[in-house]
Amino acid sequence: MIEIIPMQFEHIDAVAKIEADSNIIAWSKKSLLDDFNKDYSIYFVAVENGVVFGYCGMYHIIDEGHITNIVVECEHRNMGIGSKFMQKLIEIAIYRKIVALTLEVRISNIIAQKLYTKFGFKIEGFRKNYYSDTHEDAIIMWKYF
Ligand SMILES: CC(C)(COP(=O)(O)OP(=O)(O)OC[C@H]1O[C@@H](n2cnc3c(N)ncnc32)[C@H](O)[C@@H]1OP(=O)(O)O)[C@@H](O)C(=O)NCCC(=O)NCCS
Fold first, then answer.
1. Structure confidence at residue 25 as a pLDDT band (50, 70, 90)
2. In the predicted model, what is the mean pLDDT of residues 34-54?
3. Residue 85: which domain range?
4. Ligand 1 mutation target, pool 78, 105, 113, most atoms within 8 A of CB
5. How far is it, in rounded angstroms, from Cα 93 to Cα 128?
6. What whole-number distance in Å separates Cα of residue 116 and Cα of residue 143?
């Protein structure tokens, strides 16, 4: 059974590969490692028998959570792993008394938007030309507790 567990240093290589296979502007291993080591970062991985199927990251700053990334390995999407990550992040947010969660998502990324809407996120604004590769706008979503 796939479990969502806190990311450890030993998972970084697998996470960097999933990131490189999934995103045009991928976080490098060094960027991931730097971010993972920040004291306000919270990272989880989805694993089964030691194999990593995805990861998610969130910043906890004051009383807000900023979800920075959530990526599932291509061949294992639409199997509920993204939903498991969202459940875990929401559980952690409630435990830490975070009052709201936010994230940015590409206007074209309908599947990710469906995931966030499913967990109660609502569109609150837009950032023009947010993505440097396509100059696509970002949708800003928030979930308030
Ligand atoms: C977005 C992403 C994390 C979703 O992860 P996932 O494991 O596929 O998500 P789930 O299987 O839990 O599906 C969650 C919801 O997304 C929607 N969804 C997932 N796959 C879908 C598909 N192929 N077509 C339509 N809707 C889909 C559904 O609404 C689903 O909820 P439901 O099954 O209850 O109807 C995954 O697609 C991914 O890694 N994408 C590339 C990276 C990315 O875009 N990250 C987000 C950056 S903001």
1. confident
2. 97
3. 3-102
4. 78
5. 28
6. 9
Answer whether 78 contacts ligand 1 (Cβ < 6 A).
yes
Ligand 1, atom 42: closest residue by C-alpha: 71
Q: Is 112 touching ligand 1 by the criterion CB < 6 Å?
A: yes
Number of domains composing the chain = 1
- Name residues whose C-beta falls within 8 Å of residue 126's C-beta, 6 or more positions apart in sequence: 107, 137, 138, 139, 140
Could you tell me the pTM of the whole model? Answer: 0.97
On whether residue 67 sits in a domain, the answer given is yes
Residue 58: pLDDT band (50, 70, 90) is very high
